[in-house]
Amino acid sequence: MAKTTSAKKFKFGWYGDGGLGEKLIEAIVSGRKTATSCPSYDPEDAGLKVGDQLELVDKHGKVRAGLVVTAVELRPFGGFDEDLASREGTTLEELKKSVAFANGRELRPDEEMRVIHFQLTDRKAGR
Hints:
Layout: E1 8-11, H1 20-30, E2 35-39, E3 53-57, E4 63-76, H2 82-87, H3 92-99, E5 101-102, E6 105-106, E7 112-122
Parallel strand pairs: 1-3
Antiparallel strand pairs: 2-7, 3-4, 4-7, 5-6
C-alpha cells in the first residue's frame, strides 16, 4: 500500500529565476535559511500554521527536503532586522533589497509582511 502524506508543498524557484530557487533550496538544506517572508496578502503560504509539515520542492516539482513550520508572524516591512535577515540566510540590506518590490510596486515600511519560520526535518525526502 502506498504511503500518503499530508505535507503541503513549499516551492522555491521558477523557470527563468537565474538559479535563485536552487540557491535558496541549498541554503535551507544546509541550515543557513530557516525563515522566509512575503507580503501578508500573498495567498501562496497564507494558510500555514505552526506544526504544518512541508515538502520543499524545486521548480521541477522534485521534493528536496521535509520541513516543519515552527512559527508564523506578521511584522511591518520596516520592522525587518538583523535577526530576521540571519534567519533568512542573508544580510539585512540584501533582505530588504530582495523583497522591496511586490506586484510591481515598492513596499511601504508600514506594509504587513508574513514571516514563516521552519526547521529541516528530512534532508533526503524524495531523493
